[in-house]
Amino acid sequence: MDNPLRGLNTAGLNRRQLLSLAAMAAAAVPLTACGSGERTRQAGPASSASGDSAVINPDRPESALFPYAEAEKLFDSLPWPKTDVPEPTSKVTVTVAIIPGQRHEVRHAQFAKFIKKRHPNIEIKVEVTPFDDFRTKYLTGAASGVLPDIMYSQFQWGQSFIKNNLYLPLDDYIAATPEFNRADFSKAALSYWERDGKLYALGTDSAPKLLFYNKEIFEKAGAKVPDASWTWDKLMEAARGLVSGTGAQKVFGFTPVPKPTSDLTATFLLAHGGRYLTADETRCVIQEPASRDILKRWIDLLIKDKAMPDLAETQATAKVEPFTLGRGALYVGGAWNIVTLLTLPAEQQFEWSLTHVPSGPEGRFTPVLGSAFGITSRTRNPEAAWIVLNSLRSYAGHRFFLDTPPSRLSAFEENLQDLKLDKEVIDTTKDSLHKYGTSDGVLRLPATPKLEDLTKPIWERVMSGSLSVDEGLKQVAERVTPMLAENV
Amino acid sequence: MAASPLARREARRFHLFALPWSIGFVFFTGGPIVVSLVLSFTRYELLESPRWVGLDNYAQLLRDPDFWMATRNTVYFGAASAAAGVVYSLAAALLLNIKVRGQAIFRTIIYMPSVISGIATALLWIHVLHPDYGLVNYLIGLVGVQGPGWLTDASWAIPGLVIMTTWTTGNAMIIFLAGLQGVPASLYEAAHIDGAGWWSRFRHVTVPMMSPVIFFNLVVGFIGSLQAYQLILFMTDGGPANSTLVLGLYVYRYAFKYFEMGYASTIAWALFFLVIVFTVIQFGLARRWVHYEVK
């Protein structure tokens, strides 16, 4: 798309620029969390730290992006929800635990201030914890009986939080809120926070993955940009032809390298009839022919064609997606990256656009990932917490927080339109979510972190060429299957 | 014989003044040590009560291939970084002990890496050691040698980390500097009169006189290196291919990533055992080379 903030092409970064950019981006990592697997730490559905670095004044919270007066006007204009759950009769404080990101922190501070107009007895206290420390902090807190009233959750943590009784089921509160429209959330968005027929959290965002491409690299190579007709075969062929340069100037044909992480199945395997684990996550099937064959082709693209970042390159840019640096021609990434790309500093802007992820012999699939907020089981004010959560995650809440794309389908188009995106981009994102977005195969059970750590060294040996794909997949299956018992 | 009133009063005051430390030790050091020992015999997943499993965790540890790999890596990294740290900081201290103009500035510069935050250090060194455009390989390339894949090649990852940790051994350097300034000048003068050159003076005066300090830095550096995990977590997260997975990092993973506190405690006690073994070995070897002026 033609980016209104377009600046210089970063494909020609010199070493100094690259180092400083990588360092800056790495420093911003804790501010931009979520996503999936290897790349979860760089940017996420529920956060975007870029572009807005205001100091928050609690009496008048605002930033350049979210001026106070405008925020108040927007808040007042939105249709905030009602519930039959009774208002507190005396002052109560509801603590909301969030991950950092100036955009969100400012918005939460504004929300906390404005909500008092509607609920004078409710005081909101916002706790901000870096993404990488969040789970550790609150699980440790839970062990000693201390939790906030409302707590953030990334899609991979949801089932573990629910299994360990950290979240209250919301069904009774939803029943006491006649206007609550559960169908306004997509199935995939809810799936991470449902267990035994009960719902435990409400989504902030629900983002499909899309195929992003750097228009400048395509133009320079004289190649045709991708469109909805592309297959994965076509993408691999194009990626081979778009590699150029060396070292810090190297431009990769495609990122990221497929790895045995949480969304491997939905992003790379389903389209070819393969899976990482069986649907019930009791057995590893990654070594079976459908998965093996396509992964072999990806490893060939990495080792023989050098069209993707190798281990050294992956490490050097571990916290920054090369596409964001202008060093990737094609990139499959979450829709949350739209905000990241739009808010890149002017000197790092480049022309980009996006389209549907390619299709394979079995069809087209994209993982739908997101984050949510739930009421914790330790809350002393569950009713006040519901009033806050219901507002936070209502249509009005999604509009106020500008979640991209929002979990509430009713806010979907408006939120994307606010970013002044082309209609085609909005339609592609919407279609991806509705027509072929899935949470099938996305790992979410408690053993996932250990499983990823166990398979990482094996896959690194495959990526470096010191282990064959067949042997690597055999070892992955041997190590993963016994561990899946820990999910029970 | 009964203690005098003065002795009793002094004893009371001693206990009173030592009380804050004693309380701190019991609650923040001694208590957790005991608790972790007990937990090492349990299955404890943080949100559920610990369940006694006897020696199961220890049996699992012996069967765990990643534990053995982590142990090998820990010993390799600990020995290499302690040795390199001692050599580098002694060399730096010798240079900084020379009376030249602006020496205070040089001392500050050499010490500065020790006060830079760990994450900043790690970020810097990820780029300094980058195989394609890192400073280290650039310098090696100037003499026509192709540098290895520091941190990205399983064979070179630990040497890469050793280079980085050596850079931050400013505290050891300060101790060496203090030690060097305590070597009597008369010994150097006597050696000089006897015709000893720079190398002979270093070998026959400096090293023996500094051997207790070298020993101290070696033991402390080795223990510190055996427990290292924070920079490794940030720089390589144990990779590539588990080549930098050390026991400290393995404890961290089980405790704060998988929340298996029982097994994490077991690994921590294995690490403690390793530290004890290597410290005892070093004390045993020290008798052969450490020279104390007064016995």
Automatic annotation (TrEMBL), chain A:
Locations listed in the record: Cell envelope
Keyword list, A-Z: Signal, Sugar transport, Transport
UniProt cross-references to InterPro entries, sorted A to Z: Bact_solute-bd_prot1 (IPR050490), SBP (IPR006059), TAT_signal (IPR006311)
UniProt xrefs under CDD domains: PBP2_TMBP_like
Coiled coil stretches, renumbered: none
Keyword Coiled coil: no
Gene3D superfamilies: Periplasmic binding protein-like II
SUPFAM superfamilies listed in its UniProt record: Periplasmic binding protein-like II
Listed Low complexity bias regions: 43-54
Protein name: Multiple sugar transport system substrate-binding protein
Species of the source: Nonomuraea angiospora
UniProtKB/TrEMBL annotation, chain B:
Superkingdom: Bacteria
TM segment ranges: 21-42, 75-96, 108-128, 156-180, 213-235, 267-286
Matching InterPro entries: ABC_transporter_permease (IPR051393), MetI-like (IPR000515), MetI-like_sf (IPR035906)
Record keywords: Cell membrane, Membrane, Sugar transport, Transmembrane, Transmembrane helix, Transport
Chief localization: membrane
All copies of domain ABC transmembrane type-1, residue ranges: 71-282
Subcellular locations according to the entry: Cell membrane
Membrane topology: Multi-pass membrane protein
Protein family: Belongs to the binding-protein-dependent transport system permease family.
Protein name: Multiple sugar transport system permease protein
Top-level taxonomy: Bacteria, Bacillati, Actinomycetota, Actinomycetes, Streptosporangiales
